[in-house]
Design goal:
2 domains, YefM-like fold, 3-stranded mixed beta sheet
Length: 96
């Protein structure tokens, strides 16, 4: 995976676009921090690529939620406990 700065993108845009067209990825950085992922897409494949990226992000979020639940011991809750938490949250929401 190639890391490129915003400045690199301005100065060497054509080279970077060629890398993307070849199916490679590049991480765009600003002040040394990653801010975006640049990926090449096949013609006509934009919607599918966006859908797959969104799915991967959602799966990663679910994995983080599950890991946090395990760390807090919440994965051991019974169905009764879960239902009680849901009811309490709904009551609290209604009081807003």
């Amino acid at each position: 995976m190639k890391f490129v700065t915003v400045r690199d993108l301005r100065l060497h845009g054509r080279e970077i676009w060629n890398v993307l067209r070849a199916g490679e990825e590049a991480v765009l950085t600003y002040n040394g921090r990653p801010v975006a992922l640049l990926i090449g897409i096949q013609e006509g494949g934009l919607e599918e690529t966006v859908r797959l990226i969104r799915r991967a992000r959602a799966q990663a979020a679910v994995s983080r939620i599950r890991e946090r639940a395990r760390a807090l011991g919440l994965d051991k809750m019974s169905e009764r406990d879960i239902e009680a938490e849901i009811k309490a949250a709904r009551r609290a929401r209604q009081s807003w």
